[in-house]
Specification:
It contains two helices and four strands, in the order αββαββ. Strands 3-2-1-4 form a four-stranded mixed β-sheet, covered by helices on one side. The chain starts with 5 loop residues before the first helix and ends in a 5-residue tail after the last strand. The protein is α+β, with helices and mostly antiparallel strands and 101 residues long. The protein has one domain (6-94): Alpha-Beta Plaits, CATH 3.30.70.2960. Helices cover 29% and strands 31% of the residues. Strand 2 (37-44), helix 2 and strand 3 form a beta-alpha-beta unit. Helix 1 runs antiparallel to helix 2.
Length: 101
């Protein structure tokens, strides 16, 4: 197994998100738990449309092509946040929409 190089992971996620961010997407974060395992979290304001599901799957495919199984263990999660909830700050932030306080 190869080790995750953070700069490669960050570039992969950033590239995968290009032209796939919708107004409903509030943030994307990533948690790296060891040298070969990471988990990507997508935070949305409300229910995800079919188009957003398609964009999520395209981004996921691009990331997985850079970090293929079995060399890497990955997970992708979709979560919903109320407008008053803050994006969790215990992970690396890959994208966050401006939110006035």
């Amino acid at each position: 197994m190869r080790k995750i190089i953070l700069s490669d992971l960050f570039c992969s996620i950033g590239r995968a998100l290009l032209k796939k961010v919708t107004p409903n997407l509030r943030a994307v974060t990533v948690a790296v738990s060891d040298n070969t395992t990471f988990e990507v979290f997508y935070y949305y304001d409300q229910a995800v449309s079919e188009k957003e599901k398609e964009l999520f799957d395209l981004a996921k495919t691009e990331i997985l092509s850079d970090f293929p199984f079995p060399d890497y263990k990955t997970a992708f999660n979709v979560e919903f946040l109320k407008s008053t909830d803050r994006v969790p700050n215990d992970k690396f932030n890959m994208y966050e929409r401006y939110h006035s306080k």
